[in-house]
Amino acid sequence: MNKEFEAHFSELGYTQPTAIQTGVEAPLTNGENVVGLAPTGSGKTVAFALPLLAKILPGDGTQLLILAPSQELAQQTTRVMRDWAAIIGVNVAALTGGANVKRQIERLKKNPEVVVGTPGRVLNLLDDHRLKAHLLTSIVIDEADELLAGETRTDVEDIIREAPGDVQLSFFSATKSEALDQLTSEFGIEVTTVDVRDIDETQGQVKHGLMTLPANQRAVMLRRFSRIPGFQALVFFNQLGELERAAASMRHEHVAAVSLAGKQRQVQRADAMRDFRNGKVKFLLTTDVAARGLDIPNLPAVINYDLPGSLVTYTHRVGRTGRMGASGLVINFGNDHDIRSLKQVLRGSDYQLQPLYFAHNAFVDERPQRVESVGSVAKKTARPEQGSKAKVRSGEKPGNTSGTGSATAKPKPQRAKAATSHSSKKNDSAKVQAASKKPHTHKKHSKNKGMRHKHQLKNQEGK
């Protein structure tokens, strides 16, 4: 390591290089094509930055090009590169989509020795002859498994063709893809692979929790999490529409949250990242591409609002927490079917999933017991017990609710039989007969009778 770099390395609080930094230093210094595989948060940017910067000749034009899959990762890498490049008097320019292209062209006129950019914008500036590739000595493809998939692969291939034939190529990622196995046949190069994923010790202790929730309760749970002092989380979504619905719900409930999505303007995305890094908001709602490779120091948690469909995606999502020895928490939302699918996806990996619950404003490992409030218990005990009335179907006798006669009804209390004489029976019979002769319109009859009585009194007075 350059002596000037060693001093800055110590100033930043590092005591020794990580496994990936040690593993790629010699082959990169020697000009070899390298594939570097290391866990998320293990210092891959510094791993390629220091040996490649050490070979740059200040004032000799653009010699190092670094490609990243997103604007945020490109800006993050630019900050790291500038920090180290300033020590040796080297300039770094960022070329990303969404930013002012005229300003970027002005920066290129100063012939920066290092350029960091997204493939689309870099290729556009190469085609316009604003960016010169003939002096390039090294190209780094960061998050290579992402950049060598889909449409961006074609852009990367076109960019490499613009460079000299002997340009040094480096590919870095936390996960290995089929494309990385085909570099020799696809690009016609020999590569040195440095894979430290099994020996790296930079990862902190990360708990992977399963929280069973229906879809309509997930935004509600985020609101509850927001009440935890000091809590922050990167929240991942599979679809942009679901992200927007959750963001609207957060705004409605006055929860401090920002979004990071591809269709936003570069200024909006930069503001969102700044507010989240500075702790002004609780949640950063994002998608996989937008958040790929982001380094947010001491991030407490990652929440999979929608569960990922592959081990690679899960690895890159959860790698945002527990970086460089810090502890972290991963919260996976889903219904029973979702969780079964996730377990299938992660089968054979080292991830240990366990149930997670939220009670009394804290995360707990055991299902909390529901305790009724004193008020609700009091209401129940103050109410007298009443026998439940069974519904009687047409044609059934009370008590037979099944239609089979198997149901038993509570027997009616028997009236006590008293010894009676013959005369008392006759009296009772007479009373019943008298009662049966009373008219049903007793009140109406009484009213008419009262009116006739009143009329008679008036006649008597008139006489």
TrEMBL record:
Residues 25-194 form the Helicase ATP-binding domain. Residues 220-364 form the Helicase C-terminal domain. The keyword Nucleotide-binding applies. Keywords: ATP-binding, Helicase, Hydrolase, Nucleotide-binding. Residues 437-457 have a biased composition (Basic residues). InterPro entries: DEAD/DEAH_box_helicase_dom (IPR011545), DEAD/DEAH_RhlB (IPR044742), DEAD_box_RNA_helicase (IPR050079), Helicase_ATP-bd (IPR014001), Helicase_C-like (IPR001650), P-loop_NTPase (IPR027417). GO terms for cellular component: cytosol. SMART domains: DEXDc (SM00487), HELICc (SM00490). This is Superfamily II DNA RNA helicase. One of its GO terms (molecular function) is nucleic acid binding. Residues 374-463 are annotated as: Disordered. Belongs to the DEAD box helicase family.
